[in-house]
Amino acid sequence: MSVRPPVVQKRHLATELPGPRSRELMARKHAAVAAGVGTTMPVFAVEAGGGIVVDVDGNSLIDLGSGIAVTTVGNSAPRVVAAVQDQVAAFTHTCFMVTPYEGYVAVAEALNRLTPGDHDKRTALFNSGAEAVENAVKIARAHTKRQAVVVFDHAYHGRTNLTMAMTAKSMPYKHGFGPFASEVYRAPLSYPFRDGDLDGATAAARALDVVEKQVGAANLAAIVIEPVQGEGGFIEPASGFLPALAAWCRANDVVFVADEVQTGFARTGDLFACDHEGVVPDLIVTAKGIAGGLPLSAVTGRAEIMDAAHVAGLGGTYGGNPLACAAALAAIETIEAEGLVERAREVGTLMTERLRALQARDDRLGDVRGRGAMIAVELVRPGTTDPDPDLAKAVASAAHAEGVIVLTCGTYGNVLRFLPPLAIGDDLLGEGLDVLEAAFAAAARSEATR
Ligand code: PLZ
Q1: Measured from the CB, is residue 231 less than 6 Å from ligand 1?
Q2: pLDDT digits (tens, 9 = 90+) for 396-411
Q3: What distance in angstroms lies between residue 263's CA and the mean position of ligand 1's atoms?
């Protein structure tokens, strides 16, 4: 088995970014890859680990993105590498629907054990977050024998046809790609920064009024919500919002589905974001952080709901692939053995303190929010809540040029989000925030000279 030396945990710029080899590869990408597949940064990776991504020109970048909240346990985390190497040498695929294997069952058992609630649970495995969201809807429909699905403003649930309908934002996710699936309805969210600090119970009543008047509980199979919205801007609903929705679902026999694709597996400083308020979803959708970078997703939930779909009604060629299952078991073991839930909280405290200090001096930082290693700043025109997407773009590009990977998000494109791997050290995290601070200062200077 190949053993590579660990990736040196130091930011290092060997060339300007992008360097010459990345520029060559980008030219090949333009000639070979469909234009619709964009990239955040124009540099090509060759290796990664801890808090560092190394590019083809020998530049070492600080990773504050984790490949969009995936490599929570770190890139090529040692347990994941060992487990996948073992599995890849044993067998790569048989298809669980043809000749099953233990890894799939073990992942199902782990998810049944770890997800919120101590009721009897079942799990089904898939490949991507979107595919799992679609299956959660299929299962909820089979169980309730109803069709409608309620989602929220600013929601992101994927790029497949049903999940495009469930996703709120048109550009870039839906524009020109319709027609979309029917029976998907949108309710207002709790968005404390933008709804005048409406309390959670009142915001839930406002949403449920829309649901009752425009859909009707008798037609509704499921309410699907991200407990902290991801692509929509790391929006944390006011406390009480999620519990009120869950209680209403219980009272109306509607399946309450938590989409924890981005928030799951220690990311928010709880194993699952629902744990924060003790919300127990009927179904929980997981992906991303579940398998340390290998493609895997899951729907886990109440046995009587999960078992409503007829035998052979759920599946897919690759769902719960043996390599992905081996990786998931190793990722879960890593989270537990290395205390990564606790580490996410430390990372959250470190980032939040720094960003709040910056906010106190710079009123373009309208809101600092999030939990654990899922923190964001929403950028506004000073003294208002008017979104400033240009500033978000300018700060992100300046950070990129200095070798720090940061992502933007939000319906208005004005949110900088931070999703560091939990394998990052405090030093690198602090240095990443230094670079960011300098990027804000530089953006101020260029504005002054406009
Ligand atoms: N649900 C809450 O965050 C994926 C999307 C990146 P897939 N988010 C990153 C992009 O631009 O495509 C996501 C999510 C939530 C579902 C999904 C979909 O997960 O694995 O990308 O299908």
Answers
A1: yes
A2: 999 999 999 999 999 9
A3: 11
